[in-house]
């Protein structure tokens, strides 16, 4: 039996799941929905609780909110992957952009979902083995949104320094400030 096959079998046997989100009603609904799908759920609503749950028993699966009141959910993903490299974790966030998605995947997340995500989407992301080709998006990003995402990525890479970001994008600083002050285009 190959290592990949053993990992798949282990995931089918161990259905432990950590759900980490600071939105308590959403956390409770998602936890109940995942229990109905056969998972043994541990709930946490802070980074500290999430890290403690990982230390106590590193779960096979995790659904982690990106931004929490006491820190960043990526810290929990990183610790989970250190304790259990075969764990399948996904990031949920209402503040989605390409830069954070790339960071999440580099730290070991297998998928990145924008809120509001329903239990079916979460389940599909957790169980996706990566071999099935993703369906094309129903509503792909507009060109304006792609531009905005690129600007946000460069801005994050420049440590949120407006002047440096403007220089690298060959853009006037005031123009960049106006773009950053606006909401993301659809």
UniProtKB/TrEMBL annotation:
The modification 4-aspartylphosphate is found at residue 65. GO terms for biological process: regulation of DNA-templated transcription. InterPro entries: ActR_PrrA_rreg, CheY-like_superfamily, Sig_transdc_resp-reg_receiver, WalR-like. GO terms for molecular function: phosphorelay response regulator activity; transcription cis-regulatory region binding. One of its GO terms (cellular component) is cytosol. Keywords: DNA-binding, Phosphoprotein, Transcription, Transcription regulation, Two-component regulatory system. Residues 16-130 form the Response regulatory domain. NCBIfam families: ActR_PrrA_rreg. This is Two-component system response regulator RegA. It comes from Tepidamorphus gemmatus. The lineage of its organism: Bacteria, Pseudomonadati, Pseudomonadota, Alphaproteobacteria, Hyphomicrobiales.
